[in-house]
Design a protein that fits this description.
This protein has one helix at about 55-60; strands spanning about 5-15, 70, 75, 85, 95-105, 110-120. With about 180 residues, it is mostly beta strands. It has a single domain, classed as Coagulation Factor XIII, Chain A, domain 1, CATH 2.70.50. A 4-stranded mixed β-sheet has the order 1-5-6-2, with no helix packed on it. Strand 5 (about 95-105) and strand 6 (about 110-120) form a beta hairpin. The longest helix has 5 residues, at about 55-60. The protein is globular, with a radius of gyration of 16 Å. The N and C termini lie far apart (about 40 Å).
Length: about 180
């Protein structure tokens, strides 16, 4: 596997206790390559589990296999959900770790994260093409001082150039760290 160190971020606000099934996440029982299913994938991520509930280590060791192929610069609708996203045109070709994060809106604010191995085609070359993209927004996991308010949409402070915002593309009118 060509490990490129690529990590995508597609943050969404949604109901908690869900999990990414398409593409099937690392550890998901319905991922054809999983040897030991993780039946707690739909629980919030804790500090020591960041990123990817530590499944990124499997990817780095070559244990995770690609479950989807996406062309760089394409729009990829997630199956059976209202979420659409774009693969950055600068994404390097080869194996990549796709990360999906979300925060529940009501109740004890928590961060959720699932990851899957995907293959990017027709993209750039090398990790350098992704340098200008932002780091993952992290809150509520105990590794930093960032917390987010209950009942208010999270406004990611540095979302980058490829952004999906609220309903009909409107800004969330929310807040980042408080």
């Amino acid at each position: 596997m060509n490990y490129l160190g690529l990590l995508f971020l597609f943050p969404f606000l949604t109901t908690a206790h869900v999990l990414m099934s398409s593409p099937p996440s690392l550890g998901y029982a319905k991922n054809q390559y999983v040897t030991s299913p993780d039946y707690d994938l739909n629980f919030p991520i804790k500090g020591a589990q960041f990123p990817c509930k530590e499944y990124h280590k499997d990817f780095a060791r070559g244990a995770g296999r690609s479950v989807a192929t996406w062309p760089a610069g394409s729009s990829c609708p997630a199956e059976n959900t209202p979420f659409n996203f774009a693969i950055p045109p600068s994404a390097p070709s080869g194996a990549a770790l796709f990360a999906w994060t979300w925060f529940n809106k009501i109740g004890n604010r928590e961060m959720y994260m699932n990851c899957a191995v995907v293959t990017i085609t027709g993209g750039g070359s090398g990790f350098a093409s992704m340098v200008d993209n932002p780091r993952i927004f992290v809150a509520q996991i105990g590794t930093n001082a960032c917390t987010v308010k209950e009942g208010v949409p999270v406004d990611f402070p540095n979302p980058g150039a490829v952004v999906v915002r609220g309903e009909r593309g409107s800004p969330p009118n929310g807040t980042g760290c408080v």
